[in-house]
Design a protein that fits this description.
single chain, 8-stranded mixed sheet, 4-stranded antiparallel sheet, 20 strands, Diacylglycerol O-acyltransferase
Length: 455
């Protein structure tokens, strides 16, 4: 066999190494060359085949390419629009959800328009100066911006009734704040009182100035809490309704336990939107910030699975990223006098149709790059629109039932908690989470399903 034949023979027999013109190329180089040689239509088709569609009726997933090949899908006689006879309450519920889903876009657009209008500069320049120096989202001062009035707006009742979102209390949780003893001792109802004697009479006149709030003064006597919310779903819709608003009557079910929902710091980079979140008690999920909030006797809620769990979200699934998430347990040990409370939201993953990417697809790489660069990512999803039921970013009307479990108390403060201590409390946490899941799964439509820990 001559030298040219030997080269051709080696190209055919060796799948990993080929010799041509005296140079060696790895299997990865060959793969890249093949990728470049594919036509755009082939790449598009492979990407479609790598996407799996998860929705009602397709809980096990279906390749998107096969779904698009179905003749009924692309030849629907008409778009399924909302009926004009829809009750006005349902319309208001849809608008409340549309506001929440797109609120960051609306406020970002308002900011750009206000900056472009010279008439608004008298407002925008002082605000932007304040925006640049204010560190409230990261220094624990969200407790000063926490507005019970804003959290209690009727808007949030409409938001929660849309799905609906329901909170289920399965155990009594001692309140953090109880009525102060000063209330029983006839504490002054006014900030300033002036007593003037009407001489020469023995009578006097009392002038009361600046009446105090009618709210009963309270003091911190009980433990604080770290609520762990599972699963994340696409956007943790249930966590927002239950923990960031009074739409589910949080203060009635759990009186004396003010709670701050924690999210990524990126959301506080949009002017006005950051102040909107802070007034709802939403703050950043950094360790330093969480410790400061807990030090002020406020409880916190953490969506434990985070962005990584969002990528695994499927309709009707119970896939959790939890085994390797121990930071919230360590946070409880370092604080002391804290209860760790598992919460499971049945139906959180059912509100959107999901397009899940394959590990080797370009779309998956784009999602992971976005997560590495910006700290978060979201799956590809769709549901319905404001005026139609076929396509849009408004979630479906699917019930979300949030079961709040029993607290796992950490009485002692650990200066430097060991791995064994963290694992011990995490095990207790997982056991309680599994208990409430198995006890209530049949009641809320998860019969026959098991918790699946993907990480």
């Amino acid at each position: 066999m001559d030298s040219a034949g030997q080269v051709n023979h080696r190209k055919q027999c060796d799948g990993k190494v080929s010799i041509s013109d005296g140079a060696m190329s790895s299997g990865a180089d060959i793969w890249k060359e093949r990728e470049r040689s594919r036509s755009p239509s082939q790449i598009l088709r492979n990407e479609l085949d790598s996407l799996r569609f998860y929705g009602k009726g397709n809980e096990k997933g279906m390749p998107l390419g096969d779904l698009l090949d179905e003749p009924d899908l692309l030849h629907k006689p008409k778009v399924n629009f909302c009926s004009p006879k829809t009750p006005w309450k349902r319309r208001l519920q849809t608008l409340a959800v549309a506001w929440h889903v797109g609120s960051f876009i609306y406020m970002a657009a308002f900011t750009l328009l206000a900056m472009a209008n010279p008439l608004m500069w008298v407002v925008m320049i002082p605000y932007l100066l304040y925006y640049m120096v204010d560190r409230t989202p990261a220094n624990g001062r969200v407790t000063r911006r926490y507005s019970n009035w804003f959290r209690s707006l009727a808007l949030w009742q409409y938001y929660c009734n849309y799905y609906p979102i329901r909170l289920h209390k399965v155990a009594d949780i001692p309140p953090t704040f109880t009525e102060s003893k000063a209330n029983d001792l006839g504490a002054k109802k006014y900030k300033m009182s002036l007593k003037i004697r009407l001489w020469p009479l023995k009578h006097s006149l009392t002038l009361n100035i600046l009446k105090k709030s009618d709210a009963v003064e309270k003091e911190a006597t009980g433990p604080r809490y770290i609520f762990g919310y599972h699963p994340h779903g696409v956007a943790a819709l249930g966590a927002f309704g239950a923990f960031a608003t009074e739409g589910c009557n949080w203060s009635e079910l759990f009186p004396g336990i003010p709670v701050c929902l924690m999210t990524l710091i990126n959301q506080f980079q949009i002017p006005f939107y950051r102040d909107y979140l802070l007034s709802l008690g939403i703050t950043s999920v950094s360790r330093k910030n969480a410790l400061k909030v807990l030090d002020q006797n406020f409880s916190i809620c953490i969506v434990v699975g985070g962005a990584q769990e969002a990528l695994t979200s499927k309709v009707g699934s119970a896939d959790l990223v939890l085994k390797r998430r121990k930071g919230f347990v360590k946070l409880a040990l370092e604080t002391g006098k804290v209860g760790i409370v598992p919460c499971f939201a049945f139906g959180e993953t059912d509100c959107y149709n999901i397009l899940q990417t394959d590990e080797k697809s370009y779309l998956r790489r784009m999602q992971l790059w976005f997560k590495r660069t910006y700290g978060f990512t979201i799956p590809f999803f769709f549901a319905r629109g404001v005026f139609n039921y076929d396509f849009g970013l408004i979630p479906f009307r699917r019930p979300i039932n949030i079961v709040v479990g029993r607290p796992i108390y950490v009485d002692k403060k650990y200066e430097n908690p060991s791995i064994e201590d963290i694992d011990y409390y995490q095990k207790l946490y997982i056991e309680e989470l599994e208990r409430i899941f198995h006890k209530y799964k049949e009641q809320f439509g998860y019969k026959g399903m098991e918790l699946n820990y993907v990480e």
